[in-house]
Design goal:
Shape: elongated
CATH architecture of the largest domain: Up-down Bundle
Main location: membrane
CATH superfamily of the largest domain: Cation efflux protein transmembrane domain
Low-confidence stretches: 1-22, 308-317, 319-330
Protein name: Zinc transporter ZitB
Order of helices and strands: HHHHHHHEEHE
Keywords: Ion transport, Membrane, Transmembrane, Transmembrane helix, Transport, Zinc, Zinc transport
Number of domains: 2
InterPro entries: Cation_efflux, Cation_efflux_CTD, Cation_efflux_CTD_sf, Cation_efflux_TM, Cation_efflux_TMD_sf, CDF/SLC30A
Strand content: 5-15%
CATH class of the largest domain: Mainly Alpha
Strand order of the largest sheet: 1-2-3
Pfam family, one: Cation_efflux
Length: 330
């Protein structure tokens, strides 16, 4: 049986690849700029927290330190993603960005737990907090973090790496808001426990968003079907709209980095159908209707090369348990 692997589908989704390339170059610059902003103000905020005795400022400075490192790592992930594929890494370095996003999620979890622990200690022995200087430093921090958030928000929000970077800056922004609120309460009422209370509130908010980032990044790393796509619906769509395709099975759909989607499948064809034309039609359908940039299609007549059964059913033969099949090897 002939395994027709066609590469002429590039014209259908060349625009997608070009758009991703433009986004990548822009996102790389955005992340580097925000990393410099974050690193510069982190020093100011750490000194302000130490001089005023504010946990909210110190916690936010600690968060900004890890954010600066995380943003630098995100920038390097974009840099690596520009490298061409190699014989060992045939898909290139694009998935490094997803790995960095997952790592950033873990780092945020650790930071939030440390803030909660430090807040608990401060409840036991409340320190003196200077509300005036704390308010001034937090106000400057808010301006810096808003600027960083706006810079990153203009990038590709489908990129998990960018989402991780935005999440770090969003955590800093919330930290600055909490520090300002705590400073105002301390200046007006003198009630210092508000400082650790608001720090814990920010930590909880960060934990929830970090969990979503880690979940989405893990889904990509586990080669799960992209959330906006339904594998079985795609299979039925091909069977219904591509002439000569009797059945689709052994189908796998996954994402390389959260934005570029890929698929492998076996297509059982009617007798007399031109396999090359059928494969081209399937790839065009996948690119045009389902935003799947790269597909490996194995045409079959009568029997599946990976099994002894004869085809004649419908999409229920997609075999949910199949993990390895010839379509993975190009």
């Amino acid at each position: 049986m002939t395994h027709a692997h066609n590469h002429d589908d590039g014209h259908d989704h060349a625009g997608h690849s070009h758009d991703h390339g433009l986004h990548g170059a822009s996102d790389k610059k955005r992340v580097l700029l925000v990393a410099c902003l974050t690193g510069g103000f982190m020093v100011v905020e750490a000194l302000g927290g130490w001089l005023t005795g504010s946990l909210a400022l110190l916690a936010d400075a600690g968060h900004m330190l890890t954010d600066c490192l995380a943003l630098a790592l995100a920038w390097y992930a974009f840099h690596l993603g520009e490298r061409p594929a190699t014989a060992q890494l045939t898909y290139g370095f694009g998935r490094v960005k997803t790995l960095v996003a997952y790592t950033n999620g873990i780092a945020i979890f650790v930071i939030a737990l440390l803030i909660v622990y430090e807040a608990w200690k401060r409840f036991q022995a409340p320190p003196l907090v200077l509300g005036g200087p704390m308010l001034g430093v937090a106000g400057i921090g808010l301006v810096v973090n808003i600027a960083g958030f706006l810079i990153l928000h203009g990038g590709d929000r489908e990129s998990l790496n960018m989402r991780g970077a935005i999440l770090h800056v969003l955590g800093d922004l919330l930290g600055s808001v909490a520090a300002i609120a705590a400073a105002v309460v301390i200046l007006v009422t003198g009630w210092t426990p508000i400082d650790p209370i608001l720090s814990v509130l920010v930590a909880v908010l960060i934990l929830s968003t970090a969990w979503r980032l880690m979940r989405d990044a893990a889904h990509v790393l586990l080669e799960g079907t992209p959330p906006r796509l339904d594998r079985d619906d795609i299979a039925r769509d091909i069977e219904k709209n591509v002439p000569g395709v009797r059945e689709v099975h052994h189908m796998h759909v996954w994402s390389l980095d959260g934005s570029r989607h890929m698929a492998t499948l076996h297509a059982c064809l009617d007798e007399g159908v031109d396999a090359h034309q059928a494969v081209c039609a399937i790839k065009r359908r996948l690119a045009d209707q389902h935003d799947i940039d790269h597909a490996t299609v194995e045409p079959e007549f009568g029997h599946c090369a990976d099994g002894s059964h004869e085809h004649g059913g419908h999409a229920h033969t997609l075999d949910h348990g199949d993990e390895l099949h010839s379509g993975h090897y190009h």
